[in-house]
C-alpha cells in the first residue's frame, strides 16, 4: 500500500516543475509586477489600503502560526512503514494485521509533554510516541508515550494535572520543568500519581534518543476477531537498539549546547540511511481473566508486568524518510485515539474515555475547523465517502444535490456497511450499573506498583531516582509541600523518603513502605540490548599523530556503524607524523563532550598547545564523570594522565591493549556506561 504523499525526491521534483522559472502571482493567480515596494500616494507618501498584494502577503504572514499544542507542543516526526511479521488473524479482524509480509505506511511524531514548542529536547519529561497507520480500512492512530502508565486515572483530572505541571501562571516560570511548587503540590494531594512519578524521576524521562526509546499505548484496548470474540490488549513498541538514557547532568548541559539534540539525531540518522527500527507487539488478557490480578487492568496508572503477561511481538516499524516540511506534516498531523479500524476497540478505561473527546475537540481549535482530515498528512490512503459538508478550510469540492442519509435521489449513497462487509461495529460489551460519579475500589492502590518499580531497579538506577527526587523537590519553595511529598513517598520506600527529607530540609517520615517484595526485570534498563551502531565518538586530535594507528581505529569504528566526528583546534585538514591526513569537522568550540557517547583521545600538537591540552582534558573529565568509555591512543596518554580520569572500567589504553585495542574499544563503546566507575573517590 502506498501513502498518499510522494517521497521527498518526487516532491522536490514536483516543486521544481511547479515553481522554477515561473512568474510570481498572488494566491488568486494574478501576476505580480512589484514585490519590493508597497503602493503609495507619491514616492514618499502614505501607503494605500487598496494595495491588495501587500495586504495578502502581510495577512498570510500574520497567520502563519497556529496555536501550538497545549501539551506535546515540542515535537518531531518521520515517515516509515509497518511490516507484519506474525498474523494476528486469530485475535483481530483488522486487515493490516492479517497477512504476513504486508506493509502499511506510517507517520510517527515524538514529543515532550510539558514544554513549549521552543523548549529543549533533553528536559526531564514524558515523551510522546504517537503513530498514525494509514491502513486500507482507514487511519489507525496509536497515541502513546515512552512510559507505560500515566499520572491520573480519570480524564476529568487531566486539566488539573496540566495546569499544575505547566509554568506557574503568576510568573510563567519554569519552562519545560516539573521541578516547582504547583506540580509537587498536585502530586502530594493526588496520590494516584505515585507510580508515574517514580518513572518520571527515573532514567526513562531523559532518553538518549528517540531511536533508543520504548513506546507504549498506555491504555487497555481490545482486539476483536472475525467471530466477535475479544481480548484485552496493551501495545508495546521496542527499539531495535535497546532502551538507553542520558545522565541528568549531561541532559541539562545538552539542553544548552544543542537544544535540538533529539530531533537532530533522528533527522541525521534517517538522512544518512541508518536503520531506525522498532518491534511492535501486544500483551493480551482473556476476558474471563479480567479480574484475576491484584490490579485493575483498566487503571492507566498500572502496568501489566511482562513476567505475568508476556509481550507477543507481531511486527516491525521502520522510519526511513524525513518530513519535507515540519509545519505541514509534524505540526498539522492530527493524532486521535478515536481513529480506529474494525478489529480494534476501546475499553472502559476512564482516562481513555476522556481522551476520546479531548483530542478531537483540540484539533477543531488548532487546525481551523472540522476539515483537518483533508490536510495531506491526515488524509487516509483508502477512499472515503460521507455526507459531511462545508466548514472552514474545505478543500474537496462536493457535487450533487444530496448530502443526507437516507435518500432516494442518489440511490441511498453513500450507504452503510455491515460487519461482514467491513463496517465498524462497536464491541457489544454488557454494561449495567447506576449513574454515578465515583471511582472503583480496584483503583485505590497507589503504591504497590510504585514499590514494584523501585524493587526492579539496579543500584545505579535507584541512585539516579533518588537524586532526581532531591533535585526536583529541592526546587520547591514551600516547606509544607516538601514535607507532604516525603510523607507520601515513604509508602514506596523508607530509605528513598528519608534521603529526600535529609536533603530538602524537612522532617524524616514516620510511615512505612508497602509490603511488596516482587520485582519485574523488564522494567530495568540494565537488561536492554546494547549495540555500537550509530553511537557517536569524538576523536580529539592534533598534528603529529600516528596515522596508521588512528586509521585502523577509525576504520573499525566505521565498520561497526559508529558515527565519528574529528575534533581539533580548527576546521580543515591535519597531517600525522607519518603523512596520513585527516579532515576535522568539529572544533572544541563548536561541539561538546556531552554530545558524544565516547571519546578517542589521540592528542598531538597544536599552535596553542596549552589551550589544546586544556580543551582535551576538559572533554576527558566530562566524559569520565558521565561514565562514558574513553579510548586513548599512544600519543594521547600524556594528556589523559593529566586529567581526573583513572585507568579502570571503560578506559581502553592503546599501549596496554596493543593489537586488540580497536576491538576492545568497540566492546567498551557497546557497553555505553560504566556505573562501577566510582568518580567520587578515585
UniProtKB/TrEMBL annotation:
The keyword Heme applies. Keywords: Heme, Hydrogen peroxide, Iron, Metal-binding, Oxidoreductase, Peroxidase. There is a cross-link at residues 336-359 (3'-histidyl-3-tyrosine (His-Tyr)). It holds the Pfam family Catalase. It catalyses: 2 H2O2 = O2 + 2 H2O. Its cofactor is heme. The active site is at 72, 145. Heme binds at residues 69, 109, 158, 355, 359, 366. It comes from the Bacteria. CDD domains: GATase1_catalase (cd03132). One of its GO terms (biological process) is response to oxidative stress. Its EC number is 1.11.1.6. GO terms for cellular component: cytosol. Residues 25-413 form the Catalase core domain. GO terms for molecular function: catalase activity; heme binding; metal ion binding. Decomposes hydrogen peroxide into water and oxygen; serves to protect cells from the toxic effects of hydrogen peroxide. PANTHER family: CATALASE (PTHR42821), CATALASE-B (PTHR42821:SF1). Belongs to the catalase family. HPII subfamily. This is Catalase. It comes from Sporosarcina thermotolerans.
